[in-house]
Every structure is written in C-alpha cells, then in structure tokens.
C-alpha cells in the first residue's frame, strides 16, 4: 500500500500550487530545493534545454561557418550562434532571478526570528540584551503614560 501524499500547499489566490515553495519545503523539513519530478524526467529535460540546446546551436553555427557556401556562411554562423548564446543567457538571467527569491525567503525567516526572539539569528542573546534604549530622565513613553493614567484613577 502506497502512503498517501500530502496535498499541495495553497497559493495566495487559494488554488493548489504546482510547484513546492520555499515555505512549504521548510514546513516539511526538506532542505533540498532542487527536487526533481522523476515521473516526467523534469531534471534531464531542463538540463537539455539549459545547456545541450545552446551547445548544439553554437556548434551548428560553427558548422555553417565551415561548410556553408560563401554567400550564407556568416549569416548562418551569426544566426545559430546568436540563438544558442541567447538561450544560454536567458537561462542565466532566470537563475539569477530565482536566487533572489531564495535570498528574500532567507531574509524573511531572519526577520521572523528577530520578531519572535528579539535578536538576529547570528547574534548571541547576550549581545542583544546589551542593546537597550536608555531614555533621558522624565521622557514619556506610552507605557509610562498608561501607568500615570492608572495612578490618577
């Protein structure tokens, strides 16, 4: 008997997500963000699109440079090489964008930790305790005003 899979997490718009988000991965305790869907060969297909396809196109460009007739040699080389490098650079830009999402998730986790504990995750709690506000004598705070109001009653 196969164990039942947990339902996919809900997105902001209330529908089930096709992709596992960083928060869902942290909730399940999974730290590997490079999960692969083995049923459809997601990993090998993406490798082919990211690296093999651009390499084939660049190789076809150099093949055109070597084999094509003189009249179309440079246009074929420029077209195929440009297409291959464009695909490769678009994949690089996509990767940079995705890494920014992971950095934002990490920063949000650190801010949540600060809200709960009063110090940053890489700080020792003693260092956070030494960082207290010293107000001048007689300065009014919401807490002191509320205490004065209670004493007047």
Whole-number count of domains: 2
Radius of gyration: 29 Å
Q: Give the uncertain stretches in residue-range form.
A: 30-39
Tell me how many strands there are: 0
Q: What average pLDDT do the residues reach? A: 77
Percent strand: under 5%
Taking the sheet with the most strands, its summary is: none
N- to C-terminal distance:
69 Å
User: Which structural class fits the helix and strand makeup?
Assistant: mainly alpha
- Assembly of the depicted chains: single chain
The shape is rod-shaped
Description:
This protein folds into two domains: 8-37, no CATH class; 38-119. Helix content is 61%, strand content 0%. It contains five helices and no strands. By secondary structure, it is mainly alpha-helical. It has helices at residues 22-28, 42-67, 73-117, 125-129, 142-152. The longest helix is centred in the middle third of the chain and has 45 residues, at 73-117.
Summary keywords:
2 domains; rod-shaped; mainly alpha; 153 residues
Question: What's this, in brief?
Answer:
The chain is mostly helical. The chain is 61% helix and 0% strand. About 7% of the residues have low confidence.
List the helices and strands and how they pair.
Blueprint (H helix, E strand, L loop, with lengths): L21 H7 L13 H26 L5 H45 L7 H5 L12 H11 L1
Helix pairs in contact: 2-3
């Amino acid at each position: 008997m196969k164990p039942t899979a947990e339902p996919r997490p809900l997105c902001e718009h209330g529908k089930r997500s096709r992709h596992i988000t960083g928060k869902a991965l942290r909730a399940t305790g999974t730290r590997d963000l490079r999960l692969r869907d083995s049923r459809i060969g997601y990993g090998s297909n993406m490798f082919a699109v990211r690296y093999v396809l651009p390499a084939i196109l660049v190789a076809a460009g150099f093949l055109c440079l070597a084999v094509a007739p003189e009249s179309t040699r440079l246009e074929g080389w420029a077209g195929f090489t440009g297409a291959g490098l464009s695909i490769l650079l678009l994949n690089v830009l996509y990767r940079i964008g995705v890494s920014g999402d992971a950095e934002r998730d990490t920063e949000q986790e650190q801010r949540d930790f600060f809200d709960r504990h009063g110090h940053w995750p890489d700080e020792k709690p003693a260092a956070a305790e030494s960082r207290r506000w010293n107000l001048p004598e007689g300065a009014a705070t919401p807490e002191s005003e509320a205490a004065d109001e209670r004493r007047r009653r």
